[in-house]
Design brief:
It is a single chain. By secondary structure, this protein is of the alpha/beta class. The chain folds into 2 domains: 140 residues, Rossmann fold (3-Layer(aba) Sandwich), CATH 3.40.50.1860; 107 residues, Rossmann fold (3-Layer(aba) Sandwich), CATH 3.40.50. 44% of the residues lie in helices and 19% in strands. The protein has 12 helices and 10 strands. It is globular and about 50 Å long. The protein binds D-glutamic acid. D-glutamic acid binds next to helix 3 and helix 9.
Length: 262
């Protein structure tokens, strides 16, 4: 009898942020074979128009399909909220996306005031606005585009004076509102969650959707009949950067980290 392999899961983002999603996925699906693509050369995605975003995403999706993945996790809020419906219509495999954690935020907030930090494109997208209007109607939602954050985070230094200054300016703004819950609506921001925790003087709950994405992926991934723990990473940018973040997040079973321009 032919032995079926463990699930092969493609994961992609505009850069290193999606590695935080990969980390959550690996905790839930340690038997899976992951192929990760970081499009760091084209980051940030957050300021791109819909057409360009779709074109970049399609190139990556086509590559992952050539690598025979069973499903694709879009580890990018910007791609999910803007073009995942189009990707689903164009390609015949399941997609799991990530969106700002608005729904869980409405459970946690006590003063009915929720901050959402995401890319400009995410905040303007119909996908995000639909979710917000459905779940957070009776809440005060304070939205801020994280201008400049992805560029700083992509430098791979998570405590540089420039980054601290930038994050402090967002924190000060949210503290003036004030908010009690902050949704980190871009996977890059999860890499600097400790910095947000350090800079907020008032207690604020920081939320992201990584665990929800991992749960959903586990639900639809085909059951493993064989343990085949492996992660392959590719980047259109710096392999050193990808390697440093893989180490920082302590991602296991990484077989290769290679440069690949699509
Ligand atoms: N990490 C991505 C997100 O979750 C994209 C950030 C960007 O490239 O602007 O939105």
């Amino acid at each position: 009898m032919q032995k079926s392999l463990s699930p092969r899961i493609g994961v992609f983002d505009s850069g290193i942020g999606g590695l935080t999603v990969l980390k959550s996925l690996q905790q839930r699906l340690p038997e899976a074979h992951f192929v990760y693509y970081a499009d760091s050369q084209n980051a940030p995605y957050g300021a791109l128009d819909g057409g360009t975003l779709l074109a970049y995403s399609e190139r990556i999706v086509q590559y992952l399909i050539r690598r025979e993945v069973d499903l694709i996790v879009v580890a990018c809020n910007t791609v999910t909220t803007e073009v995942i419906d189009q990707l689903r219509a164009l390609y015949p495999l399941p997609f799991v996306g990530i969106e700002p954690a608005i729904k869980p935020a409405t459970r946690g907030a006590q003063n009915k005031s929720i901050g959402v930090l995401a890319t400009a494109r995410t905040l303007q997208s119909k996908g995000y606005q639909r979710t917000r209007d459905e779940y957070a109607k009776s809440f005060k939602v304070i939205e801020r585009p994280g201008i400049g954050l992805v560029e700083e985070i992509e430098k791979g230094v998570f405590d540089s004076p420039e980054l601290i200054r930038l994050v402090q300016s967002f924190v000060d703004d949210f503290e003036r509102q004030p908010i009690d819950t902050l949704v980190l609506g871009c996977t890059h921001y999860i890499l600097i969650k400790p910095l947000f925790e350090r800079l907020f003087a008032t207690p604020v709950t920081l939320l992201d959707a990584n665990e929800a994405v991992a749960r959903r992926t586990q639900e639809i991934a085909k059951p493993a009949e064989e343990v085949f723990q492996m992660v392959e990473c590719y980047t259109s940018g710096s392999t050193e950067l990808l390697e440093a973040v893989v180490k920082y997040l302590d991602i296991a079973f990484v077989r290769s980290i290679e440069a690949l321009t699509l």
